[in-house]
Amino acid sequence: MTQSQLHLNANWRYEEYGPRRHYVIEAWLGGQRSGRAHGWFEEGRQFVLEKIEMDRSQRSRGYETAMIEELRAKAREKRCGEFVIQGVRAANRGAIRLYESIGAKPIQTDSDIYAYVISPP
């Protein structure tokens, strides 16, 4: 993957509720939206990734990692103490490999659902 192939378009203030800022970030490849991620953050506290999606044909090429690294940079910029990836199913081995490869640690939140946390982001 070269960075010239991937374009990330972010709206860091998609919606606001008090101190919570909801965001959306889109991955564009060849002029087409190929993926997106969304969640929320509270400046100085926590940065949460609720969902990340990538077209099947574009998976495992580093694009998801590039999106997450962009989000982690924003978390650091906003002085968040941790980066949390929510709602990861225990059966989603591909996602778990990705999150563990970037240093995220699992926390079980339900019988088959985990959050993955990187602290500091």
Automatic annotation (TrEMBL):
Top-level taxon of origin: Bacteria
Sample GO molecular function, one term: acyltransferase activity, transferring groups other than amino-acyl groups
Pfam families: Acetyltransf_1
Domain N-acetyltransferase: 1-121
Gene3D superfamilies, per the entry: 3.40.630.30
Protein name per its UniProtKB record: N-acetyltransferase domain-containing protein
The organism of origin for this protein: Arenimonas maotaiensis
